[in-house]
Write a structure and sequence with these properties.
alpha/beta; 19 helices; 8 strands; TIM Barrel; 51% helix; 425 residues; eight-stranded parallel beta sheet
Length: 425
C-alpha cells in the first residue's frame, strides 16, 4: 500500500456517524443488563459483534451463556471461547476485536497466557474519562453520533463528544409502553400520540443530529401514504389493546412513519434508516432485505427536501445503494458497521461508489457498538479499507494522486459535516 496514502488516512480524523454506546456512567456503574451489558469483564469485548460469529462457528448455547454471564469467573472464560474464537478470528468482527486487543491492551493474540492479562487490563481501563481517551486520543475520532438504546433521546453527560440521534422507531411502531416509560406520557387517541411526537421533536430536535429508525428488522420499508381517517380508528383500537390485523398494523405504522419524517424535515434533521444485514443469528429474511432499496424509492421522491442516510450499505445487496446515492440528490450511503460485516465487500463498495456517484454522497465510518473499546478496532479496520480503496483507485488510474487529499478529507469527515447539523451540547 502507498505509504503516503496510508499515513494521510491514519492522521485524518473520522466523524463516527453511528454508535449505540452506553453512557460512560452506565459503564462505570457496571450493573449487569441482559441486553446491553451482560457482563462487565473482558468477555464484553466479544458481545458486539463477535458473539454472533461464535454462534455461527458452532459454539454451544450453554457455553455462550456461561461466557457472557457475570457470574462466571473471568479467568475461566477463555476455555469456553477458545475453540470458536480460533474459527472466527479472521472475520471482520474478529479482526476488529484483535485490533482492540493489540492497540488498547497490548495483547497480540488471545491464548491461555494472555487471557489473564487482558482481563486485568480491561478492568484497569474502565475509569472516568476512558470514553474520550479511547475515541479521541486513541482512535482519532472527532465526534460520535449515538443512537442510544437507553433512552429515545439520551441527554448525554458528554454531548460535545457523543452527539445524539432522536430514535423514532418506538414513535412510529407505535410502542405505547416504551414511550410512557421514557417520557411519562400515554395517549389513548391519535391526536394525543401526535402531540407526544411533536413534544419529542420540540424538546430534543434542536439538540439532535439526526433521527433514526431500525424498523427494517421487523417489516418492509414500503411506507405507503395512508390517510388520517384510516389511521385514527386503528390507533384507537391499538391503544385499547386490541390485536390489529397485519394489514391494519402496517397502515398505522405507515401513517406514523411519514408523520415523523415530516417532523424531521421541519427540524432539518437527516433521517437514518437501517438497511441490509441483521444483527444476531438464525433469523434474517433475505427476500425482504433485498427489497429495502426499491421499497424506499417512493419515500425518497415524496420527501425530496429530506436528507436520507441509508445505513450499512444494504449488505449483501450493496450495488442498489450506489445507484440510489447516484440518482437521488437527498440520499447518502453510510458505511457504518459495513467494514466489519465484510471488509472486502466494503473496499469494493467504496471504490465503485467513488467512480459512480459524487464523492460527497458517502459517509465512511460508524462502529455500531455498545462497547466503546471495540470502536477502536473497527476504526483500524475502516482506515485500512479506506486506504486500500483509495490506493487501488490511484494505481488503476481512476483517481489522480493530486486529488487524494481532498478526497480523503471529504469521505472521512467533510461529508458528515455537510450532512449533519453541528452540535456542541
Amino acid at each position: 500500500m502507498d505509504k503516503r496514502i496510508r499515513d494521510l488516512v491514519e492522521r485524518t480524523p473520522l466523524v463516527d456517524t453511528h454508535e449505540h454506546l452506553l453512557e460512560e456512567a452506565t459503564r462505570l456503574a457496571g450493573r449487569p443488563d441482559a441486553r446491553r451489558l451482560p457482563c462487565n469483564d473482558w468477555a464484553y469485548l466479544f458481545y458486539n459483534y463477535v458473539g454472533p460469529d461464535l454462534h455461527s462457528a458452532g459454539m454451544p448455547p450453554a457455553a455462550t451463556a456461561r461466557f457472557f454471564s457475570p457470574d462466571t469467573p473471568p479467568e475461566e472464560k477463555y476455555a469456553l471461547v477458545r475453540t470458536a474464537w480460533e474459527k472466527t478470528r479472521h472475520t471482520g468482527f474478529g479482526q476488529a476485536l484483535r485490533h482492540t486487543m493489540r492497540g488498547l491492551y497490548g495483547v497480540e493474540e488471545l491464548d491461555e497466557r494472555s487471557a489473564p492479562c487482558l482481563a486485568q487490563r480491561f478492568r484497569d481501563r474502565v475509569r472516568p474519562g476512558f470514553y474520550r481517551e479511547i475515541l479521541q486520543e486513541k482512535s482519532n475520532i472527532e465526534t460520535c453520533q449515538v443512537n442510544s438504546t437507553e433512552r429515545i433521546f439520551m441527554e448525554s453527560a458528554q454531548p460535545d463528544l457523543l452527539n445524539q440521534d432522536l430514535s423514532f422507531a418506538a414513535l412510529s411502531w407505535p410502542s405505547l409502553e416504551e414511550v410512557e416509560h421514557d417520557c411519562g406520557r400515554r395517549a389513548r387517541e391519535l391526536d394525543g400520540w401526535l402531540e407526544i411526537i411533536d413534544w419529542y421533536f420540540a424538546t430534543y430536535g434542536p439538540r439532535a443530529v439526526a433521527v433514526k429508525n431500525q424498523n427494517a428488522y421487523n417489516r418492509r420499508l414500503d411506507y405507503e401514504d395512508v390517510p388520517r381517517d384510516r389511521a385514527e380508528p386503528l390507533f384507537l383500537r391499538h391503544a385499547r389493546g386490541e390485536k390489529l390485523e397485519p394489514a391494519e398494523e402496517k397502515a398505522l405504522q405507515d401513517y406514523l412513519f411519514r408523520y415523523c419524517v415530516s417532523k424531521a424535515t421541519e427540524y432539518g434533521l437527516p433521517v437514518k434508516l437501517h438497511t441490509g444485514y441483521y444483527a444476531g443469528n438464525d433469523s434474517m429474511p433475505l427476500a425482504r432485505v433485498r427489497q429495502n432499496a426499491s421499497d424506499l424509492c417512493p419515500i425518497l421522491e415524496r420527501y425530496g427536501d429530506t436528507k436520507f442516510v441509508l445505513m450499512h450499505i444494504g449488505y449483501p445487496y450493496q450495488d442498489e445503494y450506489i445507484a440510489l446515492a447516484k440518482h437521488y440528490r437527498n440520499v447518502w450511503a453510510d458505511m457504518c458497521w459495513a467494514w466489519i460485516i465484510s471488509p472486502l465487500a466494503s473496499v469494493r463498495f467504496l471504490k465503485e461508489l467513488l467512480v459512480t456517484a459524487p464523492h460527497n454522497k458517502v459517509l465512511t465510518f460508524g462502529g455500531d457498538y455498545y462497547s466503546v473499546e471495540t470502536v477502536y478496532g473497527h476504526a483500524c479496520v475502516a482506515r485500512h479499507g479506506i486506504a486500500q480503496a483509495v490506493e487501488e483507485l490511484v494505481s488503476e488510474g481512476w483517481v489522480s494522486k493530486r486529488d487524494v487529499p481532498e478526497l480523503v478529507e471529504s469521505i472521512m469527515r467533510g461529508n458528515a459535516h455537510e450532512v449533519f447539523p453541528r452540535r456542541s451540547g
